[in-house]
Structure formats: structure tokens, C-alpha cells
TrEMBL record:
<dbReference type="Pfam" id="PF04325">
    <property type="entry name" value="DUF465"/>
</dbReference>
<dbReference type="InterPro" id="IPR038444">
    <property type="entry name" value="DUF465_sf"/>
</dbReference>
<dbReference type="InterPro" id="IPR007420">
    <property type="entry name" value="DUF465"/>
</dbReference>
<protein>
    <submittedName>
        <fullName>DUF465 domain-containing protein</fullName>
    </submittedName>
</protein>
Amino acid sequence: MPKLDVIQEVQLRAQLQSLIQQHRDLDTAITSLAETGTGDQLQLRRLKKMKLDIKDKIQTIENMLIPDIIA
């Protein structure tokens, strides 16, 4: 993978922080809906899928930012 320049790294770190916040917000919403019982199962499944998609994006960005160390 090519080395990131400073601007790309800053942009990725900003995107990472945004995704982490979205992930936390979804976690809070899922917990709230599950506890109150007001959310339907379809809505909960959609939110959980969104949360998983965001987690995958977070992992991808983290992998880009952390260089592979060859042991």
C-alpha cells in the first residue's frame, strides 16, 4: 500500500473520528430502542446493520493508518 501524505492522513483521521461518533450514536440508539421496547425488529436490524457497516469502515481506515509491521 502506498504511503499516505500528510493531507490524506489528516482527512482519514477526521473521517475516522466521525465514524467512531456515528458508531457510538447508533449503539446508544439501539440500546435505547431495545430497552424501551418501542422499536420494531426491522428498525433494530437496520440500525445494527448500519453499525456493522460503520465498524467495517472504521477497521479499513485504521488499517490504512497503521502501517504493517513485518515480523
